[in-house]
Amino acid sequence: MREDKSPGKIRGFFSVSIITFIVFSLGFFPIIIGGYYVLLFIPFNQLWHFFLLPFFIYIGISITLFYQVLISGLVIHVFNIKYEPGLYEYTYIEKMAFRWIVACVLYTPIRKMLEIFPMGGMKNMYYRLLGMKIGENTLVGGTIMDPCLTEIGENSTMGLFAVIYGHIHDYEKGIIIMERVKIGNNCVIGAGACIMPGAVLEDNVKLATGSVVTKGQVLKKGKTYGGLPAKEIKPKK
Fold first, then answer.
1. In 3-state terms, what secondary structure has residue 188?
2. Do 12 and 108 belong to one domain?
3. How far, in Å, CA of 49 to CA of 30, rounded?
């Protein structure tokens, strides 16, 4: 695979940097405006004013997180910053790779914040803005690395620290491989499980804690799997 030419790398780097700067700066505007009006009414020149400070800080963090989630999600949705399955050169000048880089730069900080500050149903709304298909009454407690390549059906549960990947890097060859992951209805994914690109979990599958579903593996409907790689766990007689 050929490498990036310098002009392309420089343009790509600055494009990603400018997009990131604009999007996350917009997310801070509401708290800046709100802080200005708070200072107009509360000049913090008396001791009791400072007892209100922790409450304002908490409210400020909540408002900032809300708008960062909303604005980054809307930018990705409106400008269709999504990528498709395939094998691509990992360069700024490759269209799909560039989209993946931009989406990751905007999504990763929000993903980290949502792990610290759970926001209930807003998390699912954010995933849908990013292009993820997610059914009703589904709980995503783990990490979705590539929302636009991931589909989860209804009434499914994903445990804490579980991870679903939609891409694989091969730095030696300079490529990135992207494949869709499909999780059916009524599935249970145990805490700490890892699901690799191209995997399919059919309806009513149960995946044990810490299991690894390998690239392209298909887990059959109604069965229980566990281990590394994941294998069917048959009920004891």
1. strand
2. yes
3. 22
Please state, rounded to an integer, the average pLDDT across all residues of the chain: 90
Alpha carbon distance 183, 187 (integer Å): 7
Q: Is residue 161 domain-shared with residue 91, that is, in the same domain?
A: no
The label of the residue with tokens 């990135």 reads 176
> How confident is the model over 213-223, as pLDDT tens digits?
999 999 999 99
Decide which of 116, 131, 146 is a domain's last residue: 131
pLDDT in tens, 12-71: 889 899 999 999 999 999 999 988 888 888 877 788 777 888 898 889 888 998 999 999
User: Final residue of a domain: which of 131, 162, 195?
Assistant: 131
Q: How far apart are CA 31 and CA 41, in angstroms?
A: 15
Cβ neighbours of residue 36 under 8 Å, at least 6 residues apart? none
Residues 155 and 224 in one domain: yes
Cα–Cα distances (Å) from 191 to 17, 58, 130, 181, 232, in that order, read 35, 30, 24, 18, 18
Q: pLDDT, tens digit, for every residue of 160-182?
A: 899 999 999 888 888 999 999 99
31 and 114 share a domain? yes
What is the rounded CA–CA span in Å between residue 174 and residue 222?
Answer: 39
Question: What range does the domain containing 101 cover?
Answer: 1-131
Instruction: Return the CATH number at 201.
Output: 2.160.10.10
Number of domains in the chain: 2
Global pTM value: 0.88
